[in-house]
Amino acid sequence: MFPKGRLFPLSSAHISFILNEEFVLYLILGSSPHPPSRNIATTTMSPSMYKYQPIDFATDAIRLVRLFKGYFTDPIRCELWETWLHQVEGVPYEALSYTWGGSWKSAEITLNERALRVTENLYSALQHLRFEDRDRILWVDAICIDQDNEKERGHQVGQMRSIYQNAEQVIIWLGSSSNEIDLLMDLANQTSSYDDPGFEEFGSYKRLLAHE
Length: 212
Hints:
By secondary structure, the chain is an alpha/beta fold. Helices cover 23% and strands 28% of the residues. The chain has 2 domains: 1-26 and 177-204, no CATH class; 33-44 and 56-175, no CATH class. A 10-stranded mixed beta sheet has the order 1-2-3-10-6-9-4-5-7-8, with helices on both faces. A hairpin with a 2-residue loop joins strand 7 and strand 8 (114-118). The radius of gyration is 18 Å and the shape is globular. 23% of the residues are buried. The model is unreliable at 1-24, 31-44 and 190-212 (pLDDT under 50).
């Protein structure tokens, strides 16, 4: 279980959940979804599909993804590479946690100059997280793990705790605005801490935020 923390509301769109002096969670609420035509994949212009290279299961190998800078409506472009947990200190990265929002991968990003299908919820998260002036290095399960490789999924899940612990920060994507999340944000803005035991531990707090 993660250590207890306190919630500090920053605005209606961002909340910083301080777990300790070195570990900060940023909870991000996106704006309303854009029309599907902005991010739904088209088959006529798509490059060939990305194919994962095998990962070394005998090591603490992981993959990281570089989210290239761009404007909000630009196509999502990323670069994926393999590294090792014992070497990530020199490569600060952020871990993204989010709800998949269903299994239908209706959107498409460019990964290493190839096409990769992702859920619309993840596409929206990447849109909101992308900087206009600089690249961003992330760990995202749906991109950094070959979801079609059961053995690899097991290997990476076994390292999940270390992946999050080594991250510079963990970002929780709440999804696009909804009545339920708006109510939560209103509540968060009214107080800077919670006495209810349900909010005292991150595990309970994360379950509360789960939004399918």
